[in-house]
């Protein structure tokens, strides 16, 4: 689908959002072969300028005609826009890399964290989905342990920053904080309840079994990316008054006994993971420290004696960067390499 | 030890602290028979006045001679002060109700949440310990389920407010928040790392197995209060930027299968617990809503299919009130009743 080129026409849907902006920065940082940037957004942002590859590109209003000549279309503008516009992008010949929940569990759509299942990219039919922010970090930490010791069950509680809910949620936390410190009334628009100085155990809508959509996503997406439906997952997803960086308290049970030191060794060798774990020096990952970092950081690794083969750990990653923008760009990089490798193989054969 | 009286001489060690102040308020609210209040604190607070029973009582400096004629001595001034001064209080004939960690795991000292193990009060030999704030709420929620369905394992992750670390920690969160919003440098005195807009998986010192003291306390105190060493507990204790109210994400496994509705019914009938659980109306407990409340609130009750008999829930309580001051006063109320009942029985015999 994607032709081999020296440079690509790259559309970014949601270009003025938190993830969209980060994505353009990452394209620049990593020298992605952007020939032309097509920043797309809602009417409100039309006309804004976005700098990339030494030029200013004008933000245009997203329509179904936006994707002419586009090779790669990054989507990060919510599920309803993806449902509406991803098919138009694919129809126009682009590969859509979608950060919304719209297609994540579609069996025809690969759901990809390149360090874990890059091979799944090859079977795409126009759409590749990016997992929710909390899941990218989780599978990066879980997959290497699973390969070594077979994870049978994961009990995870997330501490999710407001940036996972977008730019307005970030503003809301700041505004509510200022209001509270000045004894003024609160405004609530994005979060259902006060998020400043509070924790809310509710991300996404509630589904029938009493879980939230985010919690069922954590279970389902984890199994899909790790390609093993035998892994049991119990998730509780909580919004915390943190601007950026998702933290996760993870307890796992494994088929094979592994020690905390073995887990440290396994994760130290794993791509995209940094073991940051020295209690004697008060070293463990913190949300404020991972902002802008590519890796997922793991610490507080310890054996859990409450079960036969138990391990507890604490995992933190930048939900906007590796949880979204960086992972999307890495998928695109793999797509190009995959394409190039495939064409090399064909021409070589 | 405690003589039957119409009113009691009550000492409050740490009278000007967060818990001490709340405790005096609760004595007043509940009409505790205070004949004389002896507020004690460090030199810094000497001379401050505390209103109670229509009088102003002058804060005095804590010394080993402070406990003459004292009947009940509430301690909430940290473990080192309790180690030093609780024996003096007991020697002087007082019963010490201690909110520090000093004596909690001492086999001679009852560790009490009255709704769970009031009977343990009777075997005290001068000291009764109050559990850590995160544990009072936890056992209030767990004990009724254990009685009905035998809990075999608890996996708990706490979201602990800074008030658990005292008045200076509260100020630190406020100060750091203001500094960050004004782009000023942060001061760190109480927390090892920035707590504003951050979550820190480190409460208490680290112990040998890679857990923190708070995490091992959660396991050990839960078993001691519930009087069942067969319950396995895996805990992760996390400080969050919330002023007051501890939230806990709890996953349990039971010997007997219970449904979410059965758990709701069990907890609705349990003393000290309020079931606050209606996802269809976005109703679940929140830290900001429980401040000043006596009960522990439980919501997000759902079956966890990742294990044979699994239940997940979300539990929130006011760590200063029920987690400390109120529970201490309830212990004292039980002590008085216990004493009165015992003496009635003796005189009646």
Structure annotation, total helices of chain A: 9
Helix/strand/pairing class of chain A, anyone?
A: alpha/beta
Helix content of chain A: 25-40%
Number of DSSP E strands of chain A: 14
Describe the structure concisely for a colleague.
The structure is a homodimer of 349-residue chains. The first copy, chain A, is of the alpha/beta class and 349 residues long. Chain A has helices at residues 18-29, 79-91, 114-117, 133-149, 167-181, 213-226, 260-268, 287-290, 321-348; strands at residues 8-13, 34-41, 49-52, 55-58, 60-61, 72-75, 95-98, 127-129, 151-160, 232-239, 246-254, 273-275, 296-304, 310-317.
Describe the structure.
The first copy, chain A, has helices spanning 18-29, 79-91, 114-117, 133-149, 167-181, 213-226, 260-268, 287-290, 321-348; strands at residues 8-13, 34-41, 49-52, 55-58, 60-61, 72-75, 95-98, 127-129, 151-160, 232-239, 246-254, 273-275, 296-304, 310-317. Chain A is an alpha/beta fold. In chain A, strands 5-2-1-6-7-8 form a six-stranded parallel β-sheet, with helices on both faces. In chain A, strands 10-9-11-14-13-12 form a six-stranded mixed β-sheet. In chain A, helix 3 links the parallel strand 7 and strand 8. At the A-B interface, strand 9, helix 5, strand 10, strand 11 and strand 13 of A face strand 9, helix 5, strand 10, strand 11 and strand 13 of B.
Helix and strand topology:
The structure is a homodimer of 349-residue chains.
Chain A: E1 8-13, H1 18-29, E2 34-41, E3 49-52, E4 55-58, E5 60-61, E6 72-75, H2 79-91, E7 95-98, H3 114-117, E8 127-129, H4 133-149, E9 151-160, H5 167-181, H6 213-226, E10 232-239, E11 246-254, H7 260-268, E12 273-275, H8 287-290, E13 296-304, E14 310-317, H9 321-348
Parallel strand pairs in A: 1-2, 1-6, 2-5, 6-7, 7-8, 9-10, 12-13
Antiparallel strand pairs in A: 3-4, 9-11, 11-14, 13-14
